[in-house]
């Protein structure tokens, strides 16, 4: 699934993942900032369900769903996600869709910054009210992309625990099923604040957080200046940026089978925000960020575009596939955990999100 600023494209390949067929656009001229392959089945659907958060300039945002791999799409009246009457807020975009550990549970993160929970596989959502009413929320800022919860990480086995991140507010976590939420930003630097104020309790511009289900207490984080790891589920963060050509970037992805293997796509943090030296490079660590290696085979050496926070992902094949979508409308893929790369589609609109799964 490749979500862009002007629609969604669906790609299919055999297990080798060398040749791809893409169809689209679905939701032509709509912004697609989030999508999800839910493989669990349930309800009226025995198979996988595709979800897409699309935003129409005419009709507003909607969470669409397909139970036939994109051949047809269904919508929920009133968009599946809407702020309650009296809140004086209007939904702008759905930035994140993620499955919870319980059957049927799907989480959504939106702009304005809110987290939502569905118990019917994404057909309807309810607002996580305690987070919306959090006393720190009035002080959360808006990054250049807007104020949005762009990361939601439900604990893989504990339904009471969810970790989320917002720009610019930082990391928040609930361990009591959403009854309360606490900031989890100790050790994360907010470089844009004055000296002496750069380690606040909240207010960091976190770009993305990830973790592996086999080791859920370990989190990896790409910040607006900084790459971090937590070994205690966000209580304390440690920098792992040494060895990278830049500590700015948007995505961070963990290997589907190796909890200590993590990938980033560094960018120059200046106004250009393209890779250092204009070379497309993925960087990989096999030791949880203690050391890094540059991955370049097959990637272009003249590359002056960015990669957004959700435009990098992994599939769940035994030989893991890693995918990178770019702002010039291309998707690069590796079927050998990043060792070699090939371009699998080009000339799409600006890529915002990529998701992949084996079915």
Automatic annotation (TrEMBL):
- Which positions, given as ranges, span the membrane? none
Superkingdom: Bacteria
InterPro entries registered for this protein in UniProt: WD40/YVTN_repeat-like_dom_sf, Xyloglucanase_GH74
A Gene Ontology biological process term: xyloglucan metabolic process
**UniProt-recorded name of the protein:** Exo-alpha-sialidase
